[in-house]
What does this fold into?
Amino acid sequence: MSNSKKQHRFDCDIPNAGSLHRVDNERDACGVGFVAAVDGTPSHKILRYGLDSVCNVTHRGAVNSDGKTGDGAGVTTTIPYKIFRRWLDENRVTLADDADLGIGVVFLPDDETGALKCKVLVEGVLNNRGCKTLGWRRVPTNPKELGDQARETLPQIFQVLVRRPAGADDGAYERALYLARKEITAKAEDEDISGFYIPSLSARTLSYKALIVATALEKFYSDLTDPDYECGICLYHQRFSTNTFPTWALGQPFRMLAHNGEINTVRGNRNWLRSRESGFEHEFWGDDVDALSPVTDDRDSDSASLDNALELLTLSGRDITHAMAMLIPAAWRIDPNTSEEEKAFYQFHRCFAEPWDGPAAVAFTDGRSIGACLDRNGLRPARYKLTKDGIFTVGSEVGVVDIKDDNIVEKGRLAPGEMICVDTVAGKVLKNSEIKSALAAAHPYGKWLKENRVELSQVRDCSPTTPKEELDPLTVSRRQIAAGFSKEELDMVLASFVENGIEATYSMGDDIPLAVLSRRPRLLPHYFKQLFAQVTNPPIDPIRERLVMTLGAGFGAERNYLKATPEHARVLNVDSPILFRAELDAVQSFDDFASRCIDTTWAVADGNAGLVGAVDRICAEAEAAVDSGAQILVLSDRGVDAEHVGIPAVMAVGAVHHHLNRTRKRMLCSIVADTAEARCSHSVAVLFGYGATAVCPYLGYQSIVGLLANDKKGRFEGIDYIAAVKNYRSGLEKGLLKIMSKMGISVLNSYQGAQIFEAVGVGSAVIDKCFTGTHSKIAGIGFWEIAAESLARHAEAFGAAAPETGGIKLDDPGYN
It folds into this structure.
């Protein structure tokens, strides 16, 4: 859902359309943690500890100039039945069992007509789902504790009480409430109702959050000072929103988690999850499976989207620790304590689920278990304590809870990638090794991988070899000019890769004109600028932390996200996404992974107008190939010749990627860019960022032949062709890792499709078709201009007279 559509909830007053602010850029850097009774026994002390803790991380939040409006603070607890029993008795409502009670916290519009309309909608949907509404309770609040901004946007805050559907167990009850909330939200959108939001709707937990600083939370919600407010679990959060507009809806905790950090891959995660929706299938949902879509909303923060994914996986039958291990996996490759079974667990899930990557300390709960985990780099802190009387606390800092040392049994901190959990049903604290061992033993993941996963390096010899036939220098040079190569790129960029296996070092800064203002035709990747992480501090060092970063890639269709079967492991795996020609040939040789090569050129005779038609053609061919069973699409511009000009590679990849996303077929295939345009780290990164699974920079390899042959100064002495292409690939890999590290991303399959770029000078028609969701604050070129630049380079390449010997000499035009 794009940001251009109507707003909902309490973000309706956020400037977005027509401004430089983007709601989907929102990130959080916050104080987070939880308090729990290990045996789950409810008490007011648990709530008190939770409130004290969130007040003690107030400095991790932010406050408006009015001195009271914060970015948001809140707690999520188990349901305090004593308070609601009082309401039931006062309203003469009979309820046989506390566990039959469900509570929805609802933010309603400030006007009575709108509020009544929402109440009717909520009751109607709940009753249709079998969750009979028992009545509405106005939550006691004290608006005087709010700042001016918070008071101006203050909703009416109610709780709707419901009864368990007849015959439903606890899981079915939660799923019924989840489906009801999804349906209510969708209908509110259809009715164009603003100022309406449901922070929680559950038979296990409820939320108290406000646009406020943590120290005023219990002053605003008088329920939190009631001695009858007894809970066994308290999840808390103090929000610091980075470069955002605080709203009531985006305060935390969300329905199942509270998050400190940022999910830098959130755009890609949302896109991939949206693509997976067409394959959702589970006996728990039955005919209601279509009601799960959309799982996420582009207008939500990164934390809210992560919460949506966690909620889906957990309600679909996975244990909450299992779901978190899928979403934020550990760096299992380098941990010497990781068993083979645990490695198999992570390898298996990597076949169909990419990490939500970025710095993260996440506290989570399903109302029965409550836990916390860190991202693989451990860039956010989490410290814990266990007391003699069975209280377990986790917080962003030491000392958030005032507990005497003589009452502490154990204390410690989570290491990178670790998880800890309190199972209040079993009355146990589960450490990382115990959690991961149990997850690994749930299925024979190792057996499934052995029988289904194919390692390309183990079944094919894909080592690079010296070209058997001498490449025609004229053909190579024409391709180089058509692809925008210059002599400087060969002598400095490519040569550095070949000689040292690293990128060339330049002076800091970039003073060349923007591509859209350049007098010379520029490649389309030059119009895209890398973004940087907002709150990834400290940044990832791709050299020191190489061990926690991975560039592995897998080819093939991805299976149902909601289940786990042996067929989920059916992928073709490669260690590097930068393919040698032999590897590309091998990838295309498997019968079990049917491939289709799609020509990404258009006829020169069709002129500028031919580009958009060619883009539509390759999208249609890609969809038809997928429909016929192709699992690997190779988008190749090797057909460039005197009569054919290449579609810009990133345009071809982005267009096919988004077209298949829109037709809900993207997860059925992988995309390989076989292109002359990719030769440096940035050009390769843009291709991955817009959906490529792998890249074969064939013209870079071909150019190395000439580079070695014309080495008159002995720069490459002792380096043969095989060593040169290996150095070249190694250099591209290092450059890609460096680019990923700027965004706090450690795993390539999280970076793929994440679109972590800003377009400068690209028009909306091109963005909408090929780079959907990318920000272009400065509009500019369209298909016509891009075609003109491609045709100009092509004319320079194939219009020049052929020399008597050798190829056409490249010049150094510079960028002006």
User: Anything to note?
Assistant: DSSP finds 24 helices and 30 strands in the chain. The radius of gyration is 28 Å. Residues 721-742 form the longest helix (22 residues).
